[in-house]
Amino acid sequence: MHIKKILITLLIFTSIIGNAYSQSFNELVKIGDLAYSERDFISAVEYYKKAYNENPKNADLINKYAETALLIKDYIVAEEMFLKLKELDNSTKYPLTELKLGLSQKSNKKYDSAKQSFKSYYDKNNDKDDYWIKKAELEIKACDYSIKEMGKEDTINKVTIKHLDESVNTPYSEYAAMIMGDTALQFTSLRPDEEFEQVSKDKIIPSIYLTKIFKSILDNDSYSNSEKVNETYNKSTKYHISNGAFSPDFKKFYFNLCTTTDPVKSMCDIYYTEYKNRQWQIPVRMDAVNMSGYTSIQPNIADDGENGHILFFVSDRPDGYGKLDIWYSKIKDGITSTPVNAGSTINTFDDDVTPFYDLKNSTLYFSSTGHEGLGNFDGFKSEGTVDKWGTPVNLGKNYNTSYDDFYFTVNYTDESKGYFTSNRIGTLTLHGETCCYDIFEYEKEVKKKPVPKDTTENVAATSSKDTTSSSAEIIAKEGKQGERSLIPDNLTQKAFLDTANIKNTIDKFFPITLYFHNDEPDPNTRKITTLQNYKNTLDNYYKLGGKYKAEYSKGLPEEESVIAKKDIENFFKDYVETGFAKLEQFTKLLLYDLKKGNDIMITIKGFCSPLNTSDYNLNLAKRRITSLKNFLRDYNNGEFLKYINNGSLSFEEIPLGSDLAPKYVSDNPNDVRNSVYSIAAALERKIQIMAYNYKRDDKQNSKSHTNKNIEENIVYRIQIASSSKDYLSDSLQNAFNLREKLYVEKQRDAFKYLFGNFLNYKEASNFNKNFLQTKGIASFVVAYKNDKRIDIKEAINKSK
After folding, report:
1. Do residues 316 and 323 lie in contact, with contact meaning Cβ atoms separated by under 8 Å?
2. Which structural domains are found in the chain, ordered by start?
3. φ/ψ of residue 314, rounded to 5
4. Separation of alpha carbons 750 and 722, rounded Å
5. 492 in Cβ contact with 472 (< 8 Å)
């Protein structure tokens, strides 16, 4: 398991306890400290936040709140709290405040502000020669690099990034993806597992989930629902199993076995198991590689020809260059050599992790916090061998973000493709937008070889007769010049024009996020519809750019004022403009797909900042969704109208209002700078196109599955909590605003609290995803046959 990995748990009763009785400031801090010591960092943040609301001027508390927010990668809260701490403490008791503030600002893509914070820390401490002064010096250079890199011409068409769907990713964390031939994807996942559930007497949800190895079958471009690998090495109820890697001949499997040692650290060893007599043997600890008292993680095996294999791994053992270094050992004839450090070209004073060696191109891929990068962990590559490495090259903004990007791999069956892990915005999360890791797939543009002249003429002649291709050409040509495009260059090829490929391309757009000015459209009304379309509201929003700069920078010192104005410019460019560009491209493909005769449902969520009552904001969210529907109705003089009117195009609307707005977003109408014109508030005023589904198949499958379930007497329920207490039903129902009574079922030593009676798995799953999990509940679907719980896969198979 990765040393930076946070084992995230959710203490559901946080809100219930907080509302049941008033707790003192000291009690709240004490509970937060206890949650932190148990690695329950999300609960710790919640209690520190409550304590902060009681006493917003206690520097010790604010430091804990800021540090823990940074630990769970809630960078917006971390930045706000470190700013508060800077005002209160002036780096006296907490000298690292400005440096940690810079790290938070950098993760929020505020490179100018971050550079200022790093430089301020450096100027005050440059007489020292420790890790932190080296970090500040590096990050100043990294901010300069980031500003330059982000200003480069966009080359997004040269690489396509695909966020793998929920058949692989979950709201917890997935990482260390590895392709197995061209038929399966194997990876590590941290997720609830009923089989090994450990129920604590004072918690509704277990304090620790164990990581395990999972596998998903690959069929063309789609992935099957992942399943835990059913092998002996993967069945521990005590240890974390992670970071799997096969030998080149697939006869040995290397992995990590890890235990937690303190709130923020794990201790891992490398094991391997050998495939003999048609089964995997008992795992063997690699004593030649592991070192007592130190961690050894992230094994990767490379073929070394006649010399055997090379095992790359990561360790914090002595005689390294930094905190976590990349090491290697050679393996030949069953003998493993003494580990050797990969050297100072690769390793730095900080963390260097997730090695993957591409033998064909003699290139080592890895991630680092010690080389200049856009975010925390950036991906790098270095050409060479263990004897001599070339200077590492940052993979650039096509792959890296201001967050964590690591575990880069290359598919040995198709070197234009590979996988990596990231917590970038858009991942499935339990808390905030960047708490958790998901797996992404990339595909690089492959330069086509020149086609002989006579062949070109034949292709051209064929294309001119192909009316389907010419329709696609029209779509491609309608894109704005210089606009970021996710529509592939080969759109005109017949192979692209089938339904599956169109949907795969469209799915890469999501979520499409569209932003609004405060209380728009139609301010000061409780109407749930509007006559405005999104394009009109956007034009008016752009016109307010100058006012946003003036209000957001008002009262700030000159240098900070310049930075604030630049932040507003970046928001409109990176968020508002990009969102609309994606909408325009999506709209063209949607229209084309409808013309092919498909029935389509689009899922749209609506959000608001908290500057009004919940009821008002819910209506505002509905108006915002309506403005998008009006945009489609008005598009190209009403080209979508016939599809909307005949039901070919329909909408699933999920207005969420301001219920999910972070608490740090101001709801004070007298503080217009923060409640209206701040970036934090602007980011909450949005709608998101979340999904795109073909209705015909869904209806047929849903009806078929429902009928089959009635015959089999199968129902689906959603488990929302587990506790040693049997009297929480009413409290949970009220806390989560559920209209139906909960079912309570005793299993072993725990009481399970369940909601609903669904005759169809998809209905249960959609309700769980779109309603319960949006409230922060770590809930999941379970199945019953004749009122007896059965395996969910068995239930789904019986429905087919």
Report:
1. yes
2. 14-150 (1.25.40.10), 156-444 (2.115.10.20), 453-503 (no CATH), 509-696 (no CATH), 713-799 (3.30.70.1070)
3. -125, 140
4. 6
5. yes
* 627 neighbors 534 (Cβ within 8 angstroms): yes
Q: How far apart are CA 468 and CA 497, in angstroms?
A: 8
Structure tokens at 648: 């070919």
Residues 441-478 have pLDDT tens digits of 999 886 654 444 443 333 333 333 333 332 233 223 33
The token duo for 466 is 């192909």
Of 276, 232, 236, give the one whose Cα is nearest residue 252: 276
C-alpha triplet 26, 29, 31: angle, nearest 5°: 110
Percentage of the residues of the chain whose pLDDT score is greater than 70: 80
Residue burial 491-512, b: 16+ Cβ < 10 Å; e: rest: bbeeebbeeebbbebbeebbbb
Tell me the average pLDDT across 249-258.
91
Structure tokens at 635: 């598009």
Rounded mean pLDDT, 106-124: 95
Sign of CA dihedral 608, 614, 618, 624: negative
Cα four-point dihedral sign 787, 790, 792, 793: negative
Q: Which token pair is 361? A: 């191109």
Say if residues 322 and 347 touch (Cβ distance below 8 Å).
Answer: yes
Mean residue pLDDT of the chain comes to 81
Rounded CA gap, 367 and 369, in Å?
A: 7
**Long-range contacts formed by 410-414: CB under 8 A, 24+ apart:** 410/356, 410/358, 410/361, 410/363, 410/365, 411/179, 411/182, 412/179, 412/359, 412/360, 413/179, 413/181, 413/182, 414/182
How high is the pLDDT of residue 486? 40
Q: What is the pTM of this model?
A: 0.58
Residues 687 and 654: their CA atoms lie apart, in Å, by 10
Integer Cα distance of 549 and 677 in angstroms: 8
pLDDT in tens, 188-244: 998 875 544 443 333 333 445 789 999 998 876 788 899 999 888 998 888 899 999
**Whole-angstrom Cα distance, residue 673 to residue 681?**
9
Helices (DSSP H) in 655-716: which residue ranges? 672-675, 679-682, 695-712
Distance CA 67, CA 427 (A): 22
Dihedral sign (CA 98, 104, 106, 110): negative
- 146 burial class (0-12, 13-18, 19+ CB within 10 angstroms)? buried
Closest CA to 528 of 626, 657, 614, 611: 626
**pLDDT tens column, 271-295:** 999 988 878 999 999 999 999 999 9
| Tokens read off for 11 | 């203490």
Tokens 């609830």 — which residue? 192
Mutual angle of helices 558-571 and 545-553, in 10-degree steps: 150
Nearest alpha carbon to residue 61 among 30, 29, 90, 93: 29
Pairing of strands 252-262, 265-276: antiparallel
